[in-house]
Amino acid sequence: MRSCLITLPAATFLILLIPAVVGGDGECDGASDFRKLSGIIIPGFASTQLRAWSILDCPYSPLDFNPLDLVWLDTTKLLSAVNCWLKCMSLDPYSQEDHPECKSRPDSGLSAITELDPGYITGPLSSVWKDWIKWCIEFGIEANAIIAVPYDWRLSPSKLEERDLYFHKLKLTFETALKLRGAPSIVFAHSMGNNVFRYFLEWLKLEIAPKKYISWLDQHIHAYFAVGAPLLGAAETIKATLSGCTFGLPVPEGTARVMFNSFASSVWMMPFSKHCKTEHTYLKHFSSVRQKGYLAYLCDEREFQSNYSGWPTNVVNIEIPAAQGVVACLSSICMDANTINFECEFPTQMSFSARDVSDGTFFQSIMDHDPDIKRILYQLKESYHDDPVLNPLTPWDRPPLKNIFCIYGVDLKTEVGYYFAPTRKPYPDNWMITDIIYEIEGSLYSRSGNLVEGNPGAASGDETVPYNSLSWCKNWLGSKVNITRAPQSEHNGSDVQVQLNVEHQPDMDVIPNMTRSSRVKYITYYEDSESLSGKRTAVWELDKTNHRNIVRSSVLMRELWLEMWHDNHRDRKSKFVTKATRGPLRDEDCYWDYGRARCAWPEDCEYRYVFGDVHLGQSCRLKNSSADLLLRYV
Is the peptide bond before 93 cis (omega within 30 degrees of 0)? Predict the structure, then answer.
């Protein structure tokens, strides 16, 4: 079963990048400063280990919880002491305080983010950033150059600062890194990590003098890579809120729902309209007395002229149970009112847009039929609508950073809407999903395979976040865009297509007029041809790359590395790295071509056996160093 949005590794990298390949004499070879590559990794939702910070005796189980024991994720204790495990994971749904009997806190260091549940079997299944760190090691990055700064992904953004001073620490991390390395950082955010970084940018406005805000950003942040960003939220969050999402763990959906809904961060990725913003006045966020200003959603006329709040369809369709004291008829059975002695009514079918979800209208409509809805409305108002720093449930304008790269997968089957019905069971199993609306490569289909009317985008999402939410960052592009489509795998340039100076209208998608082969997975680059002075924006779409695996994709790592190499090379000839060819950069990229009985890419790879190789592909290795190969991409 496919995992939910909330189970996916979602993280932010803050990478201090000064790419270069140091020669044998220690001197830089062609780059502006080629000494170090270091990074600060900030993981996102459910991608950081949580450890116990208390002692909890678990009856009827040989396993107890002691300080520093792994909580998220320890499948052994989950299976043997599920009630104790839930106490350590859950928070008070209103105050966000820990359970009275057990407290959990985020782990620290790289080990907290590489594998959530280390072990021979569970380790690979719960791997998060291990592959990325391995890639960095292969390119010579030193161990002390990668720094992880985890946080408690269960909390709302304001609570992160209130309890842990998280954003103060993050600001200090940027400043310490600048002093240590002498160069600005690169921000690499995945999934909800983008929400964290957005909040940090807004929080920063209140912490430094307004006149110094832009100069601070320019001094400390060189580029921002937004990977798999749910810029307009994700529909799967509604599914987890109403019916539960098991995180891929052996727990009932109802139990998963109770735990998930105890987190204030459960609201952070709710879908919202692209046409509505907020205006509010606020005082200093961290004053001794928290002041809140008037806030309301302000929607432009397009919200009321178009359907679905800029989404492909209504995100929620739900049967509201009959009034109390009235028996609800089963929709599949028609009863004759003359033969029964009680009043019978069909449930009311109601549909709700993304705006109805984010402003609370949907939840208010079902409040009388679900005891958990009061908690959701409280958190929606307290932690999001009334947040004096930012209401995150609003569209994001381009942040004032010098270089932005927005990267996501496309053309996978992605959930964009749901049909719910009451089950007549008690909470938390009081709702069931009766149908799901999917977007599939530019069309909408129901779970049964029927075509559904709506406003599908030019492509579909990454199996978790819908395309309209991922591609919102195309609005950050300039008025003219250069588009390039190339195979994801290594290629010689024969299948590269280019369109130059394509007109880009505000709030409109940029759709290339290009062909594609069904047997080839492409990467499509959208890059500014005309942009604001000193700013660059690019969007990369990777075919058939899902939300979880994109951060472990060798294609993404290759493109990231080449772009940063190009940016920091003093002899670069263009704004962005060339897309003309892509060849192997590591020994792992070389392989055996059985059709020709030789190593593929013979100009770059050769057969060179090393003791321990067990198949021909392992013996294919680069002829030259990675440093020499990188010079092709200047």
Answer: no
